[in-house]
Amino acid sequence: MIAKYGLSADELDRMLAAARAKAGELGLAASIAIVDEGGYAFRLHRGDGAGLMTPTVAMAKARTAALMRAPSGALTARLKDEPELLRLTEYLPMPGGFPLRYENAVIGAIGVSGGTSLQDEAIAQAALDALA
User: Fold this and answer.
1) Which residues contact 130 (CB under 8 A, 6 or more apart)?
2) Residue 13 burial by CB count (10 A; 0-12/13-18/19+): exposed, middle or buried?
3) Which helix (H) or strand (E) holds 112?
4) Is the pTM of this model over 0.85?
5) Left if phi > 0, otherwise alpha if psi is -120 to 50, otherwise beta: which for 27?
6) For the segment 15-42, what is each residue's pLDDT rounded down to a tens digit?
C-alpha cells in the first residue's frame, strides 16, 4: 500500500490568506486557485473587482503546474519543441502557477491571475512561503 501526503484545511486556508495579503499589498484584485495533485480544486478565491476570466485562468495555471509537476510558465519553453503538448489536456503555458511539493512529491499546485506574470508569481510564492 502507498501512503500519500496532502494538505489540511488549515494549511489551505493559510496559503489562501497569505496569497490574498500579497495581492492586497500589490494593490491587485486577483483570483487564486489551489488544487490537488490531479488538478482538482481545493480552494478558489476571486478577489473583489477581479476580472471575469481570472478564476478560470488561475485554475488553469494551477492545473497545469500540478499535472506538469513544474511551474506553469515552464511549459512555454517546451512548446517550441513539443507543440502537441497543448492537445493533451487543458494546459495553460503562462507564468503564475507553481506545484506544491512535500518530500519530493507533488501534492497540489497554486495558480494566480489578475496581475502581470511577475505579480501573479509573487502572489503564488507568498502562498508557498506560508507553508514553510
Assistant:
1) 14, 15, 17, 18, 19
2) middle
3) strand 105-113
4) yes
5) left
6) 999 999 999 999 999 999 999 999 999 9
